[in-house]
Amino acid sequence: MSALKEIAAKYPTDKGPSGHNYIEKYEMFFEASRNEKLKIFEIGVDQGHSVKMWKEYFPNAEIYAIDIVDKTEYQEDRITIGVGSQNDPEFLNKFNEQYGPFDIIIDDGSHINSDMTFSFNHLFPMLKAGGLYVVEDIHASYWSWVQLDGSENFTNRVKHLLDSVNRHGKAGVASKANWNTDAVYVNKMVGEMDYWDLAVESVHAFMSIVFIYKSK
Q: What domains can be seen in the chain, in order of their start residue?
């Protein structure tokens, strides 16, 4: 099968070498599951290049995407496109109920802090156990001419997730298999774990892109 670099060149998405070159990072995380029957959900369609790239790269996957503008012209076999906003909870719920749960969610939408944060907080709980949530272009979270609503920088949300990965110190062992005998957790010395403490398995942050795994 063709490498992702070759496929990205075929479909001129800005994820490729001539743009952000996210494909180097994507291959690190996607190659092992490339042939699996996955459900992949991308926020943002633009000219349809990336959904076509994902369709070719994942030969057994179903590709789903949404955009606030009608992009259904890019629908085809194994590509389904909805029209709606990434900050509309009713729309996201309906889309997930109809097509989910998803194995991979990729946010390549508005890049507005409030939208990225809302979508992550809302969709991550709907992600399959062991699934992967990706947010692209987080460099834009620092740009004042993009972030006009004064909302918190999305990278701060990512930093808080590191607290969740470490369970806010609510466990004294690194393996969840040993929590039942962990004195710190069993004795409730520092409080109960919340949803995020239990759900966020790992965070992998790179320049402009972050990969967040959900616990199995």
A: 4-142+198-214 (3.40.50.150)
